[in-house]
Design brief:
Radius of gyration: 23 Å
Largest sheet: 3 strands, antiparallel
Shape: globular
Number of strands: 3
Number of helices: 14
CATH class of the largest domain: Mainly Alpha
Oligomer: single chain
Helix content: 40-55%
Length: 301
């Protein structure tokens, strides 16, 4: 017999909630501060120069033209194209967060949409297997043993540093060796995978693992640590002062492509655009495909 029981739902109340929505009166500085507190993000630090110029303005009244003008001022002052591009991307992340939580006026559109982006020189990074192993091993010698875990996770997963620093223990599965990212940079959930060796290291370093605590909590409670100084020391120790923490993503991507993984799969694994990955490392996939095709040349017809 078909169940004809009606479910009670107050559609009128749902409609009223939309009509009665009241946005939060926030300046850009207040919005960034709220975002950092709620997400343990680093956008406030990255955007500190923007706060000095635009922080006093209403977050909802800043225009695309104002953001484009500020970005151009950075270029004119000698910043590389990557700086305003990354800043606008970080600001866009904050605005998406505000829109999802209905902090902004109804119908609000992020002013970062349509803001001018600048063409960047392609940065290609080569790190040998020996150098990669040296990074892993030397990181284990730091007083803060968590730094060794952090570096090994970077080189295992190809994650962005913020994606690791913001993680809490309830998102970590040591048995299946994976970390869940509820929301990645592009807004979609993603899973990071790491090795059994790194899982064993995590078990040894983290004797207690409270469910809602950060893996890499700093001196300020519930705020992630900043490993900037430790990274500077590490890269000097291995003789690669040119390296950036973000380069770990390139190391992982290049390694996958050299081992025959396709561009779309590699891009999905590190949470990047296949088009961006093709620009940087398409030559590696071409080499892999050529080697695959050449195998049949030696076969008898």
């Amino acid at each position: 017999m078909q169940n004809t029981r009606k479910l009670n739902v107050d559609l009128a109340a749902a409609v009223r909630a939309v009509v009665e929505h009241t946005p939060q009166a926030l300046t850009l500085e207040e919005l960034l501060h709220a975002y950092d507190i709620q997400t343990c993000g680093a956008e406030g630090y990255r955007l500190r120069k923007w706060i000095s110029g635009l922080g006093h303005l209403s977050a909802w009244e800043i225009s695309t033209e104002q953001l484009s003008a500020a970005a151009q001022a950075m270029i004119d002052a000698g910043y590389k194209a990557s700086s305003p591009n990354r800043d606008l991307s970080a600001l866009g992340t904050v605005y998406r967060w505000a829109i999802e939580r209905r902090l902004c006026p109804r119908g609000f559109k992020s002013p970062t949409v349509g803001a001018k982006r600048y063409k960047e020189d392609i940065r290609r990074v080569y790190v040998s297997d020996e150098e990669s192993m040296a990074l892993r091993r030397r990181a284990l010698a730091f007083r803060d043993r968590r730094f060794g875990v952090f570096i090994n996770l970077l080189l295992d997963t190809g994650a962005r540093k913020s994606e690791l620093l913001e993680r809490r223990w309830h998102e970590v599965d040591l048995e299946d060796r994976q970390i869940l990212l509820p929301t990645s940079k592009n807004g979609d959930p993603r899973t990071l995978h790491y090795s059994e060796a790194t899982a064993d290291l995590m078990r040894r370093v983290f004797e207690t693992r409270p469910s809602n605590s950060l893996l890499f909590e700093g001196r300020v409670p519930d705020q992630p640590i900043n490993y900037k100084a430790a990274w500077a020391t590490l890269k000097k120790a291995v003789g690669r002062i040119d390296l950036r923490q973000h380069d770990s993503r390139h190391i992982v991507a290049a390694g996958m492509l050299r081992n025959g993984i396709s561009l779309p799969v590699a891009a999905q694994a590190i949470g990047n655009s296949p088009a961006v990955l093709a620009q940087r490392y398409g030559h590696l996939e071409t080499k892999t495909l050529r080697n695959a095709v050449s195998l049949q040349w030696a076969q008898p017809s």
